[in-house]
Amino acid sequence: MRAVVVNSFGGPEAVEVVETEVPRPGARQVRIKVAAASLNPVDAGVRAGVFGGAGERIGLGWDVAGTVDAVDAAGAAGAAGAWSVGDEVVALHYGAVKPLGTHAEYVVVDADAVAPAPATVDAVHAATLPLNALTAAQALDRLEPAPGRSSLLVTGAAGAVGGYAVRLAAQRGIAVTGLAREGDEEFVRSLGARHVTSDAVADRAFDAVLDAAVLGEPALAWIRDGGRYIGVIPHAEPASVRGVETGAVEVSADGARLAELVRLLDEGVLTTRVAETYALEDAAKAHARLDEGGVRGRLVLVP
Questions:
Q1: Domain coordinates in residue numbering, the chain
Q2: Less Cβ around it within 10 Å: N or C end of the chain?
Q3: Mind listing the pLDDT tens digit of every residue in the chain (303 residues)?
Q4: How far is CA 249 from CA 18, 75, 231, 236, 299, in A?
Q5: How many CA atoms does the CB half-sphere of 119 hold within 13 Å?
Q6: What is the largest CA-CA distance in the chain?
Q7: CA–CA dist 231, 175 (Å, integer)
Q8: For residue 99, what is the DSSP state?
């Protein structure tokens, strides 16, 4: 099968499409025939060596939508159901340094990471959900904002993680302010933000900040004494000041939680955004487009 890998770190030119053996599922695993897999900023970080793995062949890709192609002989029951060949699914294949990712024709993932595919969108759109929506949901869990009582600022509110965070928080009854570039105000308001700003001010004294834009220390100025800050890059959160609790979410593969997010997508609470699609063999071109910036929505690879 074909798979996208890096054998040495660098820019888009480091991305290779290689022929490799089709992986076999182990205990409590399923193999998915990939229909679509989105490209995320973390993939660019892996490609550049941010997460280590020098000297190894590293497979790219975390998100996948496709069809169960094989299961472990003992069965493949996961947190969101028991999987059978032919089931249409989505999954998060966690891990920065792994020999094969989801940017391939087939991928093996733990059964607990799998959820039923959405019924209301195609595989290309479904592939944009797992990593970003799970990150947003798990970050909100860490912040524990109280409906009707807590104020939340989401930076990067027009982005993939930030957009899901705004929508999920608004659905819970949280007063959300979105920090986004000028021109994105209408979109962020459509997600449920009560206020949108391109320049948050300190005197608002938010109870919490979800820093999807990775602003770091400057974002602490917008949090009240004793409030909370959650970033989206593990172990990269700023040091605490004024009693502000700081941390960062490390997304985990959770099929049951992903199934809840799929349900919200099917109910119209969540929406997906696809910017462009690329053939698997054009993965390097997709990376180059990601590096250019200004992408609204996700780039998606289609085998």
A1: 2-129+272-302, 132-248
A2: N
A3: 999 999 999 999 999 999 999 999 998 999 999 999 999 999 999 999 999 999 999 999 999 999 999 998 655 665 556 899 999 999 999 999 999 999 999 999 999 999 999 999 999 999 999 999 999 999 999 998 888 788 999 999 999 999 999 999 999 999 999 999 988 999 999 999 999 988 866 566 899 999 999 999 999 999 999 999 999 999 889 999 999 999 999 999 999 999 999 999 999 999 999 999 999 999 999 999 999 988 989 999 999
A4: 33, 32, 6, 10, 23
A5: 4
A6: 60
A7: 19
A8: S
Residues 6+ apart with CB under 8 A from 98: 58, 59
- Second-level CATH architecture of 2-129+272-302: Alpha-Beta Complex (3.90)
Q: What is the token pair recorded at 253?
A: 């593969």
The encoded tokens of residue 136 equal 């947003």
**Residue 183, strand partner residues:** none
Q: Rounded distance, CA 10 to CA 129, Å?
A: 27
297: left (phi over 0), alpha (psi -120 to 50) or beta: left
Residue 10 one-letter amino acid: G
Name the one residue in this structure whose structure tokens are 């990150």.
135
For residue 294, the one-letter residue type is G
DSSP 100: -
Domain 132-248 CATH superfamily: NAD(P)-binding Rossmann-like Domain (3.40.50.720)
Q: How far apart are CA 110 and CA 216, in angstroms?
A: 33
Cα separation, 187 vs 196, in Å, equals 10
Please provide the size of the chain in residues: 303
Given this chain, do its domains 2-129+272-302 and 132-248 carry the same CATH topology?
no
